[in-house]
Request: fold
Amino acid sequence: MAPKQLSGQATGGWTRIAVQPPSVAFEPGPPRQSAYDVPDTECEGWSTDRFTLRAASVRGDSHRWPRRAKPRQDCVRATVHERTGTLVFAVADGVSGAVHSEYGSREACRSAIETLIDQLERNRPIDLGAVVLRAVARLTELTQWRLGMQPNESPGIREISDLFATTLVTGIVQPMADGVVLVDVCRVGDSGAWVLDRTRAPYDAELYTPLFSSKTGSGKRFVSNRVAALPQLPAELERTQVQLSELDTLLVGTDGFGDPLGDGDGQFGALFAEQLSSPPALLWFAHVLDFSRETFDDDRTLLAMWPTRPGERR
Reply:
């Protein structure tokens, strides 16, 4: 049976923002019953005296399709280390081939946040390598529990991957003097991070600066769907540090956002440059991320951070 198609009016109020050509509108199906605690959409947002944050994670149409519906496999988590005012964040994209990747992504984010907070609390230098290793350890523990292993038994990489494989982008944003903030971020897999220069006009080729290499864009002849993800570890961890001014916006997202963004100089990039010129209302941020575009039907997750000068809370 074909899914029930909807008109814009039938969706009740807000119609999905279409990036041409849009996808077909339909009523989503429920994910499997074991994923009852993984909602279709999550969003949050708040401000400190040094930055404003918006974050959302939305189930893509490929996972909403009735009879083949799956839970959202992306996750985003963020908090502030209270003593230092440092933003701590994690974004993860559960690998579609893993049986329970929706929980792998959540536990990877949870572990990353807890480890970074512990390092800050102990006044230790930020060790993102240790953060990634702890995330792998958490996925290992989760696999031991799922497979009913004894404490002295250890699952192999293949067993962990089959159940909980996930990408991970994690790091911190540290406030500095004169409104500048320092971003320290790493990744495993194909999720990404960008700096949006809000002084540039839409469709500008240098509007978005990627902090990691991209699998799409004008410099790529072929696009690979192969994902190197946790629990596998790269030979060398991808890590980037960059300073942002109050005219920049940090974006951290899964490939559900990064793939349609590409080089950022098309209709999609212009849409988000306009919508993120200043922090939007929380629910509107999630609504924009729930864009409709044909063939781009993966889960999409995005964290956006706008720096502010001390005392200039938005």
Q: What stands out?
A: Confidence is low (pLDDT under 50) at residues 6-11, 217-225. The first strand starts at residue 41 and ends at 47. The chain has one domain: 33-307. Residues 33-307 form a domain with the Phosphatase 2c; domain 1 fold (CATH 3.60.40.10).
